[in-house]
User: What shape does this take?
Amino acid sequence: MNFMEKEKPIGVFDSGIGGLTVVKEIMAKLPNERIIYFGDTARVPYGSKSNETVIEYSLQDAAFLVQKNVKIIVVACNTASSVAIPALRERFNVPVVGMIEAGSAYAAKETIDKKIGVIGTRSTITNRSYSKELRRINPGFDVFEKACPLFVPLAEEGWIDHNATLEIAEEYLRELKELSVDTLLLGCTHYPILKPVIQKVMGEKVKLIDSGVAAAQRVSSELDRIGLRSNSNGLGVVSYYVSDIPSTFEKVASLFLGKPVSHVTKVDTETIIKSNAQ
Ligand code: DGL
Assistant: This one.
């Protein structure tokens, strides 16, 4: 494989800021890879939009990354992963890694009682993407799903130790707890931020699956499979692009990434839309 191909960046897109929890895991797993991140902050949230709109936006977001010459696309947004993967794979020649396949495979390995809970945005849960994938892996799995839309703004507010978050988590998770799931899939980019409160409510014995960790592992094995792992010894750099003003993104980013971000570039939505027309 040509040296230049290996040194191309990994492309990651999300509806906004949440995908940084996935970038964090990719950086930890593959520290010398370059990453190009696109957060569609002008059109967030995706989790309450129709499948058609999310597919359309996802094709545009991915096309923008392809124009940046990425070697692989990571769909960090669970909502986009749950509806747009077939369209993305049909449209682009680069491999596409989605959260649903990666997270489900990981959860399938972890569950002992075959009782898995899944939480996500309204769209992800209504589409039943995780339960379909989990049952494809093992038809014997019992899967229970619950939309937890308020977790997204709570995570962005950084309300991790807040009583309101605990109360909301208790309300959302009550049924899953009563059903005694032994594994809970965090099927939304934002939920890893709220891991401590979710663990507290579910109890220490329940295994929480971070689909970002699962996706980072999937990216690593996919790069090995196609022979495109970077040979570089240096630390990879992340270039950030967003479709709305970078200041809000920069403010909240460190919570999601674990460190501050710099060099955030704004791209007009027009440019993103045009990317897919070329
Ligand atoms: N990134 C989305 C997800 O993982 C959450 C935010 C949104 O609704 O756009 O599903």
User: Anything to note?
Assistant: The CA atoms of residues 160 and 194 lie 6 Å apart.
